[in-house]
Request: fold
Amino acid sequence: MMRAIPLTAEAFAPFGQVLDPPTLPGRTYFDQRLENRRPGAHPSLSLAMRAPSSLPFRVEKMERHAFSSQSFVPLDPVRYLVLVAPHAPGGGPDMTQAAAFVASPGQGVTYGADVWHHGLTVLDAPGRFAISMWLDGTAGDEEFVDVTPFTVEAA
Reply:
C-alpha cells in the first residue's frame, strides 16, 4: 500500500514540475522541465476526458515517455492522482522510489522525460485535460509495463 500526499512543487521536483496557476494578473511560464530528446519529434497537443475513480485505487501498470516530457493541464476543477517513479538502472520503473500525490483543483504537472507515471486518474468527478508532449510516431513515443499490483490510499 502507498499513501498519496498533497501535491507540492518541492516534493514533486525529482519527477517534474508542478504547474500552479497564477494568483495575480499576469503570466507564469512553466518551461523548466519541458524536454524533447529527439530532433525529428513534433509537438503534440491533445484533449482528454476521464471518468472519476476513487481512492483507494489499485495500480497495475505504469507508463513512460523516454524522450519527451508530458504535461497535463486540467480544464475542470478536479483532483487527480499523480503517481510517479524514476527509471530503474536495470530497466522499468523503480517502484521502491515511487511517490503518490493528489493534485488540487487547478494544479497541472509536467512529468520529466523518462519518468514513469500512472495513467491519468481523476478523482471525485469527471475531468477534462489538455495534454502536451513530443511525438515522432515510433514505439519510443510511449512504453507501458505491468507492475506488481498495489493500492494507493489518501493520506
